[in-house]
Amino acid sequence: MEQEVIRISNIKCKPNDGLDLIEKKIRKALNLGKEDIKYEILKRSIDSRHKPEIIYLYSVIVLSVKGKSFKDILKRTRDKNVTLSKKIIYQLDTSTKGREISEEERPVIIGFGPAGIFAALNLSRMGLRPIVYERGLEISKRQEKVNGFWSGEKLDLNCNVQFGEGGAGTFSDGKLNSSIHESTGRISYVLNTFVEHGANPEILYVNKPHIGTDVLAKVIVSIREEIKANGGEIHFASKLEAINLKANPSGEKEIDSLEIKDLTTGKIFTKTARKVILAIGHSARDTFEMLDKLGIMMTAKPFAVGVRVEHKQELINRNAYGAALDNPNYKLPTADYKVTYKTHASGEERGVYSFCMCPGGYVVNASSEEGELAVNGMSYSSRAGENANSAIIVTVTPKDFGENVLDGMKFQRKLEAAAYREGEGKIPVQTFGDFDKGVKSTSLGKVSPNTKGDYKLSNLREVLPEFITSSLTEGIHGFDKFIKGYDNEETLLLGVESRTSSPVKILRNDDYYSINIKGLLPCGEGAGYAGGITSAAVDGMKACEAIAKGFIN
Ligand code: FAD
Questions:
Q1: Is residue 194 within 6 Å of ligand 1 at its C-beta?
Q2: How many Å lie between the centroid of ligand 1 and the Cα of residue 358?
Q3: Peptide linkage before 496 cis (omega within 30 of 0)
Q4: Are 165 and 139 in contact (CB under 8 A)?
Q5: CA distance 62 to 11
Q6: Distance in angstroms (rounded) separating the CA atoms of residues 485 and 354
Q7: Strands, DSSP E only, in 384-423?
Q8: Which atom of ligand 1 is nearest to the CA of 534?
Q9: Burial class for 43, CB neighbours closer than 10 Å (0-12, 13-18, 19+)
Q10: Three-state SS across 272-309?
Q11: Percent of the chain scoring above 90 in pLDDT
């Protein structure tokens, strides 16, 4: 749905200005007096190019002005920042509500990460009573498991940082920005759903919204309750073990039923299903193996590997805000960064770049397989941790690890096994100074590792191949051009960052169904169609729309 609005860009405020100033500026730009106006903030970005001056730049949309038409208002303004625009509102077709739906027709969703959650939420809002099977546990029990693992307890192969309610992002920074282009309002729908379920409305307009692991966990529980209230079912500790196929009259393979293992009893039961959304994330390696054996069409895809880098957050804040940091009136957000650098040290050009940066966060042991170790980043909504961390990674392609479907996954496993060995089960940590020299770290500088899970001083050159370590070294030195102090000797590297995106793509048609199995909808990050919480959620919405087509008259 489209709504005509007036857009005003480039509204400049200071960080300590109240939101009431925005309304004053809107009235001025539109030559308005005291008329009732309805407006929304569309975007807020921070301009720190003229430090110590920091400017908050707002874009707003005016939805209505009582007693005045937009045409008349626009006639009376010459402000080039004022334009007629359109607000796109995503509309879920709920005409299916109240329709009879047999047990066999109920859509099944495997995985309750962002993709599975948004597919389930919308199917439930449409009255289609989805059934979700998730191998991990519900959030409160999952938090106990993960905290136990970080304190030294045994890894649970089905309930960990990658698996369980909320998916891979539950123990994350909860960044909600996305680089996907979406013209139908689905991104706003996702963010609005987060707000409806308890997130701070600021996420609707700040440039890079984030909610932190603490708020995200509460939001997910609240969405789960809505799905259940709408007639959906969510089964935790329930793992998809196998898919039974049959040939339809045209000789095509289609889903007959699913074999689901109840992980609390160890018993496997068969669930007849016609439409199955496969939203299993990028770490379900055993499930990828099962799908490959079954002949579901997949290809190996590029991803990226490297390390997590930690600095004092103060260094990153200082770089972003300069002396403005010392202004007691400014409450500036904990600063983030994004850096990229072209390197040649490996003998060919390779981009090295930051990814999933977590201001004021922790580096977490995000492993999901025995004898292997992977790291990632997490922060709370306050982003108050002492260190900034970010993945610093290099893209790897089938040329680097092999052309077979599961070769990328095997490459990840190899790196993670090396990281586990090097850290003796703990997160291997090395100062950049020692990494540069190629020696094992035996002491730390001013930066202390801020980790969830134990760490051990190590040599990450024992973990990563030379073409990656040489690219990382050149890249990290290169980043110093943008952030002074980035390549300090005491900067920390933690490894291994290997779960940046899926190592496979499960091929699907434009209608969102698998290209060779009828009824199967590969979806989200694991299938290779999303990268991050918001884009995975959007992909879940699209899978829901594809299923709903069969129900809408
Ligand atoms: P997932 O979230 O991975 O969910 C898949 C679910 O399927 C899992 O819960 C899994 O248990 C379940 N599953 C797998 N196999 C089976 C099976 N056989 N049977 C039943 N269930 C199964 N992204 C951001 O945008 N912002 C961030 O700040 C951010 N930080 C991150 C921090 C960490 C520590 C991690 C690990 C990831 C982070 N990401 C972040 C990435 C983000 O979490 C993923 O992009 C997103 O979760 C992908 O969503 P998904 O639904 O496709 O898959």
A1: no
A2: 17
A3: yes
A4: yes
A5: 13
A6: 16
A7: 387-396
A8: 25
A9: middle
A10: ECCCEEECCCCCCHHHHHHHHHHCCCEEECCEEEEEEE
A11: 95
- Contact (Cβ atoms closer than 8 angstroms) between residue 282 and residue 506: no
For residue 283, the ligand 1 atom closest to its alpha carbon is 3
CATH fold, domain 2-88, is: Alpha-Beta Plaits (3.30.70)
ipTM of the complex: 0.99
Give whole-number Cα distances, 333 to 199, 457, 507, in Å.
17, 32, 41
- Ligand 1 and 133: CB distance under 6 A: yes
Q: Which residues in 187-215 are b (16+ Cβ under 10 Å) and which e?
A: bbbbbbbbeebebeeebbbbeebbbbbeb
Q: Which helix (H) or strand (E) holds 225?
A: helix 212-229
166 CA closest ligand 1 atom index: 9
Return d(Cα 362, Cα 118) in angstroms, integer.
Answer: 27
In this structure, the residue with its CA closest to atom 26 of ligand 1 is 175
Residue 258 forms beta bridges with which residues? Answer: 243, 271
Give the residue range(s) of CATH 3.30.70.2700 domains in the chain: 2-88
Residues sharing a CB contact under 8 Å with residue 161, sequence separation 6 or more, in sequence order: 146, 168, 170, 171, 364, 365, 366, 367, 368, 376
Ligand 1 centroid – CA 119 distance (Å): 14
Mutate to test the pocket of ligand 1, among 220, 277, 356 (most ligand atoms within 8 A of CB): 356
Nearest CA to ligand 1 atom 39: 169
Residue 385 Cβ < 6 Å to ligand 1: no
Nearest to 92 by CA among 192, 177, 175, 221: 192
Instruction: Please tell me if the CB atom of residue 135 comes closer than 6 angstroms to any atom of ligand 1.
Output: yes
Contacts of 102 (CB under 8 A, 6+ apart): none
Q: Assess whether the C-beta atom of 366 lies below 6 angstroms from ligand 1.
A: yes
Does the beta carbon of 530 lie inside 6 Å of ligand 1? yes
Task: Check if the beta carbon of residue 464 is closer than 8 Å to that of residue 415.
Answer: yes
- Residue-averaged pLDDT of the chain: 96
164 lines ligand 1 (CB under 6 A): yes
pTM: 0.97
Domain range 108-299+505-552, CATH architecture: 3-Layer(bba) Sandwich (3.50)
Q: What is the atom index within ligand 1 of the atom nearest the CA of 526?
A: 52
Q: How far apart are CA 500 and CA 303, in angstroms?
A: 7
Q: Which protein residue's CA is at the shortest distance from atom 31 of ligand 1? A: 172
Tell me the best of 163, 165, 235, 381 to mutate to test the pocket of ligand 1, counting ligand atoms within 8 Å of each CB and taking the most: 163
The C-alpha atoms of residue 455 and residue 458 are separated, in whole angstroms, by 9
What tens digit of pLDDT does each residue of 481-502 get? 999 999 999 999 999 999 999 9
Atom 36, ligand 1: residue with shortest CA distance = 168
Q: Per-residue pLDDT averaged across 45-63, rounded?
A: 95
Per-residue pLDDT, averaged over 407-412, amounts to 98
With H, G, I as helix, E, B as strand and everything else as coil, classify residue 385.
coil
